[in-house]
Amino acid sequence: MAFAGLRLSRLGQCPGQPGPPETWSIMTSLEIEAFLATVKCGTLTKAAEFLHISQPCLSTRLNQLEAEMGCMLVVRRKGIKSVELTEKGRLFLGIAEQWNSMTVAAEDFRNNSDRAVRPKFRISSFDGPYLDVFPPVVKRFIAEHPDVDLVMEDSSTNTSYSAVLNGLIDMAFVGTNRHFSELRAVTVYSEKMVFVCNAGADYPPLVEVASLDSENCVYTAFSEDFDVWMASWFGARTPFITTNLNEQMCDLLVSSEQPLWSIVPASVAHRFVGTGKLSARLLDHNPPDRIIYCISKASGGSPYTGVFLNMLREELDRGAVSVTSML
């Protein structure tokens, strides 16, 4: 599994068992990267493999981070391979992502302080656009601008807004326009939301939303409008699991014996339905379309923002992906 923008330093030896809480130091980069890897990989096993450490070592770092933060960040469920974040964990994710960005920036400064400075163009998004829409644009940008270092980070909408406002990112693709006066927002594309389930699941061709069991839902907060729509139908009922990873969503729907379902953007559905892993159904009441916005500094931003957007516009006009251009 690829991880866009998750740059982690190489790890040293795993520390021994932690002592009493009062002897622990402030959180370290090792603990932060353990937390981020767990979120990105979706399981403790995959996260440990990605970091080239043992699973007990990974668990030690997560436990120490949680003790230092004074709360549980990651839910571990017996019999469920995947992990999910607690409410505090979802709030802490933005802090961890910013910590990682600052660490990477500091490492770059240290490593390049005595070298000629190459221009950087820094993009932030979540995994869907990276995997389903951007690949040909990124390939073209790299080919036409070999002198520019393209840095791509995988961040939530909240973290992306903060990063652009603070100059850590030049351009971000987000699911909500929050109308900051310091930022310029451009509507990029829209796409339908699609009901998906295991290819062998016993859902009818036309699914009644009112008949769905939220406890079988694998939920991703794709936009604030989608959150409102889900709340209007299911209220405060808890979904089976919440994840921000499309690959994890697909794995759960394919492997679970429960009749799990999810509602995802058309570009994501197209990728997984096309492989035969999932099946799509119609809904009797459709969620609002997912809209993707590009945000950047209103003034003094990167000159490459317009270049990338023009390339993206040309790619969307070709109609190669299942989205509707709004550029």
Radius of gyration: 21 Å
Secondary-structure element order, N to C = HHHEEHEHHEHEEEEEHEHEHEEHE
Oligomer: single chain
The poorly predicted ranges are 1-25
Using the alpha-carbon principal axes, give the shape. globular
Distance separating the two termini: 31 Å
Q: Structural class given helices, strands, pairing?
A: alpha/beta
List the strand order in the largest sheet. 4-3-5-13-6-14
Could you give a short account of the major beta sheet?
6 strands, mixed
Quote the beta fraction: 15-25%
Q: Provide mean pLDDT, rounded.
A: 82
Tally of helical segments: 11
Q: What helical percentage do the residues reach?
A: 40-55%
What is the count of β-strands? 14
Describe the structure.
With 327 residues, the protein is an alpha/beta fold. The chain is built from 11 helices and 14 strands. It has a 6-stranded mixed sheet with strand order 4-3-5-13-6-14, sandwiched between helices. The radius of gyration is 21 Å and the shape is globular. Mean pLDDT is 82; it is low at 1-25.
